[in-house]
User: What shape does this take?
Amino acid sequence: MHNQIAAGDPLVEQVTREMKRIKQDPERRRDYMKYELDLMDARSDGMAIGLAEGKKQGLEQGKQESIVAAAKMLLGLELSRTVIVKQLMSAYDLSSAEAERYLKRAQE
Assistant: This one.
C-alpha cells in the first residue's frame, strides 16, 4: 500500500487528472518554475547572509578572547594597571574604557 496508487479510486483519478491538466498548462508551468527558482535564490541568499554573519561573530568573539588572553599574560608579568591598559589600547586599537573592561574580565 505504501507509495502505490490505488487503481479505481475516484479521488486518486481526480487528483491525477488535475495534475496532468496543470502540467500541460504552459503558463502554470512557467509560474511554478519561476517560483521554484525564486525559492532557490532566496535560500541561497539566506545561507550567504547567515554564513557572513556567523563568520563576523566568530571573528569578533575570537578577537575578544585574544584580548582577554593578552590581558591575562600582561597581568602575569606583574605590570602596573596603567601599563597594561596602554598596551591593550595600542595593540588592539581600544579606548581606555574598553581596555579597562577587558582587563577586568581577565582578572575574573
In short: Residues 10-107 form one domain. The two ends are 65 Å apart (CA to CA).
